TrEMBL record:
Zn(2+) 1 binds at residues 64, 66, 158, 311. The active site is at 311. This is Dihydroorotase. NCBIfam families: PRK09357.1-1, pyrC_multi. Catalyzes the reversible cyclization of carbamoyl aspartate to dihydroorotate. Pfam families: DHOase (PF12890). Belongs to the metallo-dependent hydrolases superfamily. DHOase family. Class I DHOase subfamily. The lineage of its organism: Bacteria, Bacillati, Actinomycetota, Actinomycetes, Micromonosporales. Its EC number is 3.5.2.3. It comes from Allocatelliglobosispora scoriae. Its cofactor is Zn(2+). Pathway: Pyrimidine metabolism; UMP biosynthesis via de novo pathway; (S)-dihydroorotate from bicarbonate: step 3/3. The gene is pyrC. One of its GO terms (biological process) is 'de novo' UMP biosynthetic process.
Amino acid sequence: MTAYLLQGVSLLGAAPADLLIRDGVIAAVKATTLEELRRSLTGDELVEIDATGLVALPGLVDLHTHLREPGREDAETVHTGSRAAALGGYTAVCAMANTAPVADTAGVVEQVFRLGREAGLVDVQPIGAVTVGLAGERLAELGAMAESAATVRIFSDDGHCVHDPRLMRRALEYVKAFDGVIAQHAEEPRLTEGAQMHEGEVSARLGLGGWPAVAEEAIIARDVLLAEHVGARLHVCHVSTAGSVEIIRRAKERGVRVTAEVTPHHLLLTHELASSYDPVYKVNPPLRTDADVAALRQGLIEGVIDVVATDHAPHAAQDKECEWAYARPGMLGLETALPIVLGVLRDECGSDSWELIADRMSIAPARIAGLAEHGRPLTAGSPANLTLIDPAARITVDPHALASLSANTPYAGMTLPGRIVATFLRGVPTVLDGKVCK
Ligand SMILES: NC(=O)N[C@@H](CC(=O)O)C(=O)O
Ligand SMILES: [Zn+2]
């Protein structure tokens, strides 16, 4: 097996070091001189990579990815989504259940798991549906999915809210037995009927139906109470309002077992963009106000929001390049997440925040998903799941040059800081020199 020596790499604030990757693990950090190393490697091939000025992070972990397979292989497949993930610095992604058929049985989650293994570029961890067909009427086979070869630990009806409080309670009770987690798409459906964007001055001006902040906040408030009552784990998907951050903050202070995610787009973009009527900006939950963006950034920095998750939502051209009202909600995220977050945190903190990025984009999501091989510190003996970033480089986003099968990125033409140079999965490069290895 080929060994890799990353020379002069930055490891989270520490002085530059040499990092040796061999047999799937980090074999040594700065422990051997190159000559000793060469002698110890007889028989193996050693690839030396000049990593001066590059930063190594534990491989990124995405808690919220839509891979669209099975069912919409014209928008994305497990393979194309895996390529996009590896290029974005990810070594693991959690695949949402809103496929066709829905991932609500052991058979479907095992299929997605197997497709991920076959692609071999990131660990694809399926999320199981909470209710049969995402219909919100009866619980899916949570136990069978948990016990399947895919060992599902996160369940979500994402795209839909589990709005029946009794079902939500039962789901929380059920997963508590194996320390699973319910990831809620918080949207009170009666308050979002006809909604097309954030309810506020822009929706009033454009004449588009509004999704008020309270539609999200009312469900989060209810669900933290249910999670507290049951003593089970709740995860809140794509938090988008300042009020939601406050509810989660208070719940955490009371000791409720709640975690939360924010997307890169909710950290950067606002509802003003809808004025263009360009459906690339249509997403659920909708882009909100400047004040919401500020509160989400603060919540992320303080840790009230535990993770950045992409909500990578590829859509085929015919579902996106149409009139706003008919367009599907959702935007791409995997290949631009790290640059967006790097830029946002440079804005907020004035310098690079690698410790924060490592925690919010790798360590915390790996812990929430129970992915023990991911989000580990880059020390000798750890699995070699890592990504190498050039913080001085910039990328310009070209929607059609992305690895994703779809092109619905809201960042087209934007120049963003940070370039993913390489990604390693269990010691094998999935990306080298910014290109996918297979
Ligand atoms: N975020 C979106 O706007 N869309 C997601 C579903 C979801 O995450 O709600 C999708 O599946 O397209
Ligand atoms: Zn959602």
